Every structure is written in structure tokens, then in C-alpha cells.
């Protein structure tokens, strides 16, 4: 048996969570049956191996960035807890995606896998009697800078393979029996919303954002029941809180953006990062928005060796009434970045976000990737044209997919072209 297969078996025996009936079990990271050049499960395992010698007992102390995690399985009975490394120091970067520009996918994965997750089960809708652990987790989520955390686990934390395109990855996890958190200074805006039990959670999110709190910090506070009216406060699974905050902020920005004057030309922003290729088109029409994704073969959520998967969601002027269940959380993350840009320039537009996910993106890192890279794209100098047709040559050069493929999958473009034909007729 070769070394990779041996390591894969070791991962299983040491607590790794692998697919028991499927390609992974047959392949064991050696035969590339999923079509990827690198086995994403093995990448995480190799990184975990770096930490394993350090985790020698069930008592772990380290400087949390600060970071917390709220699970979603079994809701409302969920597992909450801190994320902490096994070392002290300035760990801010480990949980602040706003600082990750320019880092490689594997640098980010290696960095995140240093975080150990503590798990403590509570009722997310009735946590007032769940004890001091809940208080500590809430305090940690509100803290502005890294603080020392000591966690006693029921047994030594073990590796669990977590691949999710909406949440950031993390390393080993285990059930904890106690936690001690060093006193730290709360982030000012989050502290205000914590003590204001008359302010609803939507207003609290918008107020913190308006006063300069980072989106990633708001998401943590929102997830641990520190926002909202009194007894209606709830713990919210991290996965849900990320999308909820993006949605709340985007909707609030749209209140102004919808009624602004439109831009007066066609704009095209383009960007490549983490083997995600972006083209963002803005048209001089009233607010409408669409995101189209093309998942290439051999990417994290498309193991097919040959077939591309395309999906899209959209909204017109009045917005959506249902969840964007094709694109899911990425839709709201990109929309927030787009509405931030339009609010900043004081204009409105029809916006299309084209995203190609190429084979180099074989480990999902979370929707921060979408939010931060659309923000980055919109900080670049746009290509400008007098018509939509004037942008297509640049799109065709920059992107792998050509005009016809995007048109076929776009409801916004179909509607725009129909309206143009009607206007031309009259």
C-alpha cells in the first residue's frame, strides 16, 4: 500500500469523517476518481497532521482571533463554541477575511485549519438557562481583539472533514465541558446593540455596519444571540447568519440605490482570484440584479470530469420574495458588494455578475470569497462603452465562456434585449 493510501486510512481511524459508500472510499486519495488533481480531503488531512502533535490532551489554550461557530444540524438543538488555535499571540488574521486579499487557497486553508472548534449543545431558541458557557461564547463574539481562551474537552479533539462553500473551513473539533475566556474589550458598536434590548436585529445589523463595524464581525455577533429585542433573541447557525447579514445589509442599501439616477454608460469590471474569474456588467437602467455561475468540471462542487454546471438567480426592481436557492449564499454576498459600490457613487444600475469557477478552486472557502472579490473587482477601473454590444468583445477575451452562453442563462439580459427591440420598433 502506498503512502497516500496509508495516510487516508489513518485519517479515517483517527476520527476523520469520510464518505463510506462512494468514490472517496474506493479511491482513498490515490486514483483521482473524482477528477481533481489534488484530493481535497487529503489536503486537509496533511494540514491537520501539522497540528496533531500539539493537541496532546483535552485541555487546549490559545488566543482566539476572536472566533465562534454555531452549528445547524438538529436545529434548534445546536452545538456552539469557540474557535481557537493551540498557541498564543496576535491571531486576528485567522478569522478576518477582509485581510486575506492575495493569499492562495492553500495558505487560507492551512491558516484556518489551525483553529480548533469547541462544541457545547444548547437550545438556540431558549438559551437563558444554558449556563456560563453561553455567556462566554457571546462575550468572545463581541470582543474586538484576540483574547486568551482555555477550553476543556471531553476528549482530545479530532479531525472532521468540512467542505462547505458558505462557511470558512476550520480544523479539529470536540465536545467541551468548560471554557475560560480572558476579559477583553468589546467592539463598540456591537456592545451598544448587545445592551439595547429594544432594538430589533435588523436595525442593530444596519447600525453597526453604518458605524464602521466589519461585516465578518457583525455576522459573529448576529449568530450568538446578542442582537434583537429582549426575549426574542436567538442563536443563529453560522451558515444562516452569514447570508442573513448579507441580505439585511443589501436590502437596506437598496432602499436608496433603487431610486438614485442611473449611471450614464455601460461599465465592465473584471477580476481573477483563487481561480474564480469575474466579469461584472453595469447597465444604465433601473435597479435589477442577476448572478450567473459556471462551475467547471473538477471543481469543488462539480466532480464531473467533463460536464459544466451553470446556475443563476435574479431580481428586478422590487427585489426577491423567495430565497435564491440556485446560487444560495453567494447571491447575497455579491449583491451586498454591488449595492455598496452603487451607494458610494450615488447611482443606480442594472447589474450582472458573471462568475466562472475553474478547476484550481477545488476546496470551498466560504462566501467571503464572493463578497471580498466582487468588492475588489469594483475597486478597479472599469471598461466603459456606449452600448452593451461594446462590452462583449472584452468579456469574450477575458472570460472562457462567450456571449452566447451568458445570454442563454440570463433572465435580465433576455428582458433587456426584448425591451430594446420594443423601443427600437417605436
Characterization of this structure:
With 426 residues, the protein is an alpha+beta fold. It folds into 3 domains: 3-181, no CATH class; 188-252, no CATH class; 266-425, no CATH class. The protein has 14 helices and 12 strands. It has helices at residues 3-13, 23-27, 40-51, 105-112, 132-142, 188-195, 201-210, 215-223, 238-257, 329-345, 368-378, 392-398, 403-408, 411-425, and strands spanning 59-64, 68-70, 77-84, 116-123, 147-153, 173-181, 266-273, 276-283, 288-295, 309-315, 350-357, 383-385. α7 (201-210) crosses α9 and α8 (215-223) packs across α9. The termini are far apart.
The multimeric state of the shown protein is: single chain
Distance between the termini: 74 Å
Net shape: globular
Number of strands: 12
Structure classification: alpha+beta
Strand percentage: 15-25%
Spatial strand arrangement across the major sheet: 1-5-6-4-3-2
- If you average the pLDDT, what whole number results? 88
* Major sheet characteristics: 6 strands, mixed
**Unreliable residue stretches:** 1-8, 11-22, 47-53
Discrete helix count: 14
Q: How many structural domains can be distinguished in the coordinates?
A: 3
Elements, N to C (H/E):
HHHEEEHEHEEHHHHEEEEHEHEHHH
Helix content: 25-40%
Cα-atom Rg, whole angstroms? Answer: 23 Å
Amino acid at each position: 500500500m502506498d503512502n497516500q493510501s496509508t495516510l487516508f486510512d489513518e485519517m479515517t481511524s483517527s476520527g476523520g469523517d469520510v464518505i463510506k459508500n462512494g468514490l472517496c472510499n474506493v479511491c482513498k486519495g490515490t486514483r483521482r476518481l473524482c477528477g481533481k488533481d489534488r484530493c481535497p480531503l487529503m489536503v486537509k488531512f496533511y494540514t491537520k497532521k501539522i497540528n496533531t502533535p500539539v493537541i496532546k490532551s483535552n485541555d487546549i489554550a490559545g488566543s482566539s482571533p476572536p472566533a465562534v461557530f454555531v452549528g445547524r444540524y438538529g436545529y434548534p438543538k445546536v452545538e456552539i463554541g469557540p474557535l481557537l488555535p493551540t498557541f498564543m499571540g496576535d491571531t486576528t488574521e485567522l478569522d478576518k477575511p477582509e485581510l486575506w486579499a492575495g493569499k492562495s487557497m492553500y495558505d487560507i486553508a492551512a491558516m484556518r485549519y489551525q483553529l480548533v472548534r469547541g462544541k457545547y449543545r444548547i437550545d438556540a431558541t431558549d438559551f437563558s438557562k444554558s449556563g456560563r458557557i453561553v455567556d462566554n461564547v457571546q462575550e468572545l463574539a463581541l470582543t474586538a481583539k484576540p483574547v486568551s481562551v482555555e477550553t476543556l474537552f471531553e476528549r482530545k479533539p479530532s479531525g472532521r472533514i468540512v467542505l462547505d462553500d458558505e462557511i470558512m473551513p476550520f480544523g479539529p473539533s470536540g465536545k467541551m465541558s468548560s471554557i475560560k475566556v480572558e476579559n477583553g474589550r468589546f467592539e463598540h458598536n456591537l456592545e451598544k446593540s448587545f445592551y439595547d434590548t429594544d432594538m430589533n436585529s435588523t436595525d442593530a445589523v444596519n447600525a453597526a455596519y453604518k458605524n464602521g463595524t466589519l461585516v465578518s464581525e457583525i455576522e459573529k455577533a448576529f449568530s450568538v444571540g446578542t442582537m434583537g429585542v429582549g426575549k426574542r433573541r436567538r442563536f443563529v447557525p453560522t451558515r444562516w447568519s452569514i447570508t442573513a447579514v448579507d441580505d439585511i445589509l443589501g436590502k437596506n442599501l437598496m432602499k436608496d440605490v433603487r431610486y438614485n439616477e442611473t449611471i450614464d454608460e455601460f461599465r465592465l469590471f473584471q477580476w481573477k482570484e483563487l481561480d474564480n474569474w469575474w466579469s461584472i456588467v453595469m447597465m444604465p437602467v433601473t435597479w435589477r440584479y442577476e448572478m450567473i455561475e459556471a462551475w467547471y468540471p473538477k471543481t469543488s462542487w462539480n466532480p464531473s470530469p467533463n460536464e459544466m454546471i451553470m446556475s443563476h438567480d435574479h431580481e428586478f426592481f422590487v427585489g426577491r420574495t423567495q430565497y435564491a436557492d440556485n446560487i444560495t449564499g453567494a447571491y447575497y454576498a455579491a449583491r451586498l458588494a454591488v449595492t455598496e459600490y452603487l451607494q458610494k457613487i450615488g447611482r443606480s444600475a442594472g447589474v450582472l455578475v458573471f462568475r466562472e469557477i475553474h478547476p484550481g478552486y477545488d476546496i470551498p472557502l466560504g462566501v467571503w470569497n464572493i463578497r471580498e472579490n466582487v468588492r475588489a473587482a469594483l475597486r478597479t477601473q472599469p471598461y466603459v462603452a456606449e452600448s452593451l454590444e461594446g462590452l462583449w468583445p472584452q468579456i469574450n477575451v477575458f472570460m472562457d465562456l462567450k456571449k452566447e452562453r451568458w445570454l442563454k442563462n440570463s433572465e435580465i439580459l433576455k428582458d433587456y434585449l426584448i425591451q430594446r427591440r420594443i423601443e427600437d420598433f417605436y
